[in-house]
Design brief:
Strand content: 15-25%
Mean pLDDT: 95
Low-confidence stretches: none
CATH class of the largest domain: Alpha Beta
Order of helices and strands: EEEHHHHHEHEHEHEEEHEEHEEEEE
Shape: globular
Distance between the termini: 21 Å
Strand order of the largest sheet: 6-5-4-7-10-15-16
Structural class: alpha/beta
Number of strands: 16
């Protein structure tokens, strides 16, 4: 595929777009992922705390989607900022600080906030009034979303040829729901399937919040892509039986050396792949690469609430007082990663710092 391919044009994309402006661009419109797969429910939000809580409670999740929600959210919130120059900037910073505190691991969140901060600063230097500053934030936010979608489409095109026919394992959700559309790792799978690769996707359910079974399986079933849902501790057995030929996952942050933070359980999949001689791919937009961090040891890992593990389906599944460890992510060392797929190309982990 090349840049003239219409399948790479974000404006022609007809698939799911889970993070968007409302029709009047005054609200943040989100497909509420907490309700899936049982209910398709859209939220329209214009209050800071509602937007922050939507990110914290995983109504919107996935590193690129979180970044898009923050970019659009700041533009929506600007409608309520004071009109005076300094007060407008102060209101922006207060909103940005609250959103920045929602999820510490996904670097896309901080990229989006920085983009909006820089856009506002440049607009205020140019002059104008609050109306023009609000317009600038809306334009910059939509550009962030469009760039992410374009990156997902190009990533799919660049990575599709790497996936073999046969079983492909994925972990967590990296599809349209986790991005502005199409997806990262699941986007590569989509693109490979569209090319005619006879693959069968094995979907880890992904404990403790089941993003694989609730979200990835939902996306694949909706599109008619052959798939099977498996529990997380089944992957090794299927590899040993020769049913899995490749694994592909997303990322929330990638350090300069290629160490990659992704949903808890990813490291285990990578170790299993190494043992069985199976290629292990990471697919993520370039915004996920954090060259300021030399290794994965510097990536902040979010620790979430104990009841996400103690409870399931609203019912207690463990002693109410049992201590719980619930890191949301783990770090896969670069040495376990075969290739990293981005919209800029496909790289060995050690090549990222040279781009």
């Amino acid at each position: 595929m090349n840049a003239s391919d219409p399948s790479l044009d974000p404006s022609a994309y007809q698939g799911l777009r889970p993070v968007q402006f409302s029709a009047d661009a005054r609200k943040l419109r989100l497909l509420d992922q907490r309700a899936l797969p049982g209910e398709t429910r859209w939220l329209e939000l214009d209050r800071l705390e509602d937007i922050a809580e939507a990110i914290e409670t995983l109504a919107v999740r996935g590193a690129p989607a979180i970044g898009c929600a923050a970019a659009l959210g700041l533009a929506v919130l600007a409608e309520g900022f004071a009109d005076a120059r300094d007060a407008f900037a102060a209101d922006f910073e207060a909103a940005a600080a609250r959103l920045a505190a929602t999820r510490p691991t996904a670097v896309n969140l901080f990229v989006a906030i920085t983009e909006q901060r820089d856009a506002l600063a440049a607009a205020q230097v140019r002059g104008g009034d609050a109306s023009s500053w609000r317009a600038t934030l809306r334009t910059r936010a939509q550009a962030h979303v469009d760039v992410d979608l374009g990156a997902c489409l190009r990533m799919g095109a660049k990575g599709a040829g790497l996936l073999p026919a046969g079983g492909v394992l994925t972990h967590c959700n990296t599809g349209a729901l986790a991005t502005s559309g199409h997806g990262t790792a699941l986007g590569v799978i989509r693109s490979a399937w569209a090319r005619g690769t006879a693959l069968h996707v094995f979907v880890d359910e992904t404990r403790p919040l089941l993003q694989g079974s609730r979200l990835t399986a939902w996306e694949l079933v909706e599109e008619g892509v052959p798939c099977s849902l498996i529990c997380d501790d089944m992957a090794g057995a299927l590899m040993a039986r020769g049913e899995i030929q490749a694994a592909i996952v997303g990322a929330d942050r990638i350090a300069a050396n290629g160490d990659t933070a992704n949903k808890i359980g990813t490291y285990t999949v990578a170790v299993l792949c190494k043992h069985h001689g199976i290629p292990f791919y990471v697919a993520a937009p370039w915004t996920t690469v954090d060259l300021s961090l030399s290794s994965g040891a510097q990536i902040p890992i979010e620790e979430r609430g104990a009841d996400e593990v103690r409870m399931h389906g609203g019912a207690l599944r463990a002693p109410a007082t049992v201590p719980v460890r619930n890191p949301a992510f783990d770090v896969t060392p670069a040495g376990l990663i075969t290739k990293i797929i981005t919209e800029r190309g496909v790289f060995a982990p050690g090549e990222l710092g040279e781009v």
